[in-house]
Design brief:
By secondary structure, the protein is an all-alpha fold. It has helices at residues 36-63, 73-101, 107-129, 136-160, 162-167, 171-186, 190-199, 203-234, 240-251, 262-267, 281-291; strands at 6-8, 17-19. It has a two-stranded antiparallel ribbon with strand order 1-2. Helix 4 (136-160) crosses helix 8 (203-234). The mean pLDDT is 93.
Length: 293
């Protein structure tokens, strides 16, 4: 593992901010089981994070001093730690994405495209929902709440699926993704608690978050798949062999990282759903011990 872990405990928060500082210089080009397809799949996923996590930070910051939650000291401490963790995720994924760039894989343009997709989607959705009394801040926070459920769910799948872990042959990359997965589950309830604290649990709140999940998941899955194909095509590795490996890794019924999300993703549509209903305490204790976190 090529990183020094520095833990910054935020007084009162239930999770810390860890400063990792990974060194990606020695990461091989095809670090995921020596497969271009699997590596590009994960790189395409990584390309979504810098702009995506900036949206998470901005949307929570925009409402953190809303009258409904500004005096909630416990939640305010959680928000500060949430922002700290997300900022660190952005920093490390930018570092990895830059390291992939040195092999000629244009991840920088994918990062820019991600931001364009996010900005277009959030503004279009806000315009469509404005007649119903929804503000841009509410739209942004709702999108964050939905996408945080996705990131926590895919992170949980990564932590519980040994097949996926075994494919990560490079120690630095395996550690980075597992560390990220741990932290996504540590702070998985923060944006939701902010959303619920401001907008409650009524039919209007439930309807918006449910619609937001469908739209957000459609956009993210299509964008990530498109990025994967673009990377493969540019690398001249867009062939049946690599596509078959991606299918088995991501979409096969028994082991796929995407198909494995179905149950937990659907739980979001329960009217009284809360992220902590999906108990990952023991799972996180296990992995924090394994990773020295």
């Amino acid at each position: 593992m090529n990183a020094k872990v520095q833990i910054s405990n935020r007084p009162g928060a239930s999770f810390p901010v860890r400063r990792m500082n990974f060194n990606f210089d020695d990461v091989p080009e095809y670090w995921m089981n020596e497969s271009a397809g699997l590596t590009h799949f994960m790189t395409a996923l990584s390309a979504l994070f810098p702009a995506g996590e900036q949206l998470f930070i901005d949307s929570v910051r925009a409402v953190r001093y809303h009258p409904a939650i500004k005096d909630n000291k416990e939640l305010q401490k959680e928000i500060s730690a949430f922002i700290g963790q997300e900022a660190m995720h952005t920093h490390e994924h930018v570092g990895f994405n830059a390291s992939a760039q040195k092999f000629g894989h244009d991840v920088a343009i994918l990062e820019k495209n991600t931001d364009s997709v996010i900005q277009f989607g959030r503004k279009l959705f806000a315009k469509a929902m404005k007649p119903f009394g929804y503000t841009q801040e509410m739209i942004d926070l709702t999108a964050t709440t939905a996408l945080e459920h996705f990131t926590a769910t895919i992170a949980s799948e990564l932590l519980t699926n040994p097949h996926i872990q075994e494919l990560m042959k490079d120690d630095t990359m395996r550690y980075m993704w597992l560390w990220h997965a741990v932290e996504e589950n540590e702070h998985k309830a923060v944006a939701y608690d902010v959303y619920q604290g401001i907008f409650g649990t009524g039919i209007k709140s439930y309807g918006l978050r449910s619609v937001a999940l469908v739209i957000a998941m459609s956009m993210i899955l299509v964008t990530q798949a498109q990025f994967t194909l673009r990377l493969l095509k540019a690398d001249k590795k867009l062939n049946l062999k690599e596509l078959t490996m991606i299918y088995k890794f991501a979409y096969s019924p028994s082991k796929g990282i995407i198909t494995g999300l179905a149950g937990e993703m659907l739980a979001y549509f329960r009217p009284r759903f809360h992220p902590n209903d999906l108990d990952t305490v023991a799972l996180l204790d296990k992995w924090k011990s394994k990773l020295g976190l």
